[in-house]
Specification:
Keywords: Membrane, Transmembrane, Transmembrane helix. This is Yip1 domain-containing protein. InterPro entries: Yip1_dom (IPR006977). The chain is mainly alpha-helical. The chain has one domain. About 80% of the residues lie in helices and about 0% in strands. The two termini are about 40 Å apart.
């Protein structure tokens, strides 16, 4: 895969790739690396967050950390499948032509911005969270949403949240660009129609990721 061309000239990248046989190897590796990094980061962050629970609940929290990490790992591939499915279905309204396998392949390449973003946000998150003071709360405090929110806000500082928000917005716009050109050549659409097709899943996917960050504000 020519990563430089995918980043700098996605139109040419997908145009050339459309003449070749469908291959899911590279997009699978992109989504796999994205999912693995998300899994590791999720386990680390939940390990920090769950320190607020009393010692007698930590065993249960260990299981929850594993479940959260595994869910994140699987979630990357589910997101890939759902986004490809949504774009393929919407493109039918514009009389798109091309196999779902091709749509699935090109959609996978669109996760490259998310992978690159993680290489930035993970070190930032580690820097802030490794220095965070995490108080242990009582059961009474845990049952008070205001107290829990205040503690979470103290663990995750505003600079980290705002930085992740800005990166998230940039990634969503980048996703939109890659998926627009990807669906254009996967389904033989005009650029304007491809943009509309790519816009809906990008907004939904981006909104979910931004909400995951913004809830700590």
């Amino acid at each position: 895969m020519n990563i430089k061309e995918l980043i700098l000239n996605p139109n040419n990248f997908f145009k050339n790739l459309a003449d070749k046989d469908v291959s899911l190897k590279t997009p699978f590796l992109i989504v796999l690396m994205f999912s693995v990094l998300m899994c590791i980061y999720s386990y680390y962050t939940t390990s920090i967050m769950f320190k607020i629970f009393p010692p007698d609940m930590q065993n249960m929290m260990s299981i929850m950390r594993i479940i959260s990490a595994v869910s994140t790992l699987v979630g990357g591939f589910i997101a890939w499948l759902l986004i490809a499915g949504v774009m393929h279905l919407i493109s039918m309204a514009f009389k798109g032509e091309g196999s779902f396998k091709r749509t699935f392949e090109f959609t996978g390449y669109g996760f490259l911005p998310n992978l690159i973003a993680l290489c930035i946000t993970i070190p930032i998150g580690y820097y802030f969270l490794s220095n965070a003071h995490v108080p242990t709360l009582t059961m009474a405090q845990l049952q008070n949403p205001a107290v829990v929110k205040q503690v979470m806000s103290s663990i995750i500082p505003k600079p980290m949240v705002y930085t992740n928000l800005l990166i998230g917005i940039a990634v969503s716009l980048w996703n939109l660009g890659l998926w627009t050109y990807g669906i254009k050549y996967a389904r033989n659409l005009e650029l304007k129609k491809a943009f509309i097709v790519a816009l809906i899943p990008t907004v939904l996917f981006g909104a979910y990721q931004l909400y995951s960050v913004a809830k700590f504000l």
